[in-house]
Amino acid sequence: MIVSVAIMPGILHLLRHGTHAEVGKRLSGRSEIALDERGRAEAAALAPALDSLPIASIHSSPRRRALETAAPLAERRGFPVHIAPALDEIDFGIFAGRDFVELDADSDWMRWNAERPRFRCPGGETMAEAVERAWSYLSALPAEAMPALCVTHCDVIRGIVAARLGLDGIFALGCDPASLTSLAIEGDGVRLLTLNARLP
Q1: Where are the alpha helices (H) located in 50-191, listed in sequence order?
Q2: Tens digit of each residue's pLDDT (9 = 90 or more) over 31-44
Q3: Residue in 162, 176, 142, 137 with CA at minimum distance from that of residue 46
Q4: CA–CA separation, 198 vs 178, rounded Å?
Q5: Domains of the chain, with CATH numbers?
Q6: pLDDT per residue as tens digits for the range 133-176
């Protein structure tokens, strides 16, 4: 449930894109897979579900699934969608496009999951690099852009939350498709307001 609050600077709403056909089956990475029927319904339902949520700007990963999630809300609010490459999915390198069953037998994939902050995806980036690029963008948004709604990806959201709260791992943090996670920037600190809220 979203409670109406007065608009204040420093609020970031991180929205995971809606469902697509590969969720839970394949590491889509930076592919241009579209939302499936369920994902389109989620995106359509999010727009009215967020009516009471103060939003001053909308930002999105350049991936098709993220832009399709942002579109109904942007249309309902009459806002442009600011496309932000910094909110893109992690560059998974050689892992991208592979089924999770196949990946679970790959020792490099196991090492990536055990040592995400430090271990680089072969041909890709580290978790720390992905989080840093996303956080650099988000933390530089001007006061007039706040509260900002940012449509991005599961591991980007979980990585930001874990890094800002000083948590060691991300797997304990839920991040379902079309879920909302909200943070308040308070000086040099961050407060978690909402984690993995399902709205529609």
Answers
A1: 64-77, 100-103, 107-114, 127-139, 154-165
A2: 999 999 999 999 99
A3: 176
A4: 7
A5: 11-198 (3.40.50.1240)
A6: 999 999 999 999 999 999 999 999 999 999 988 887 777 788 99
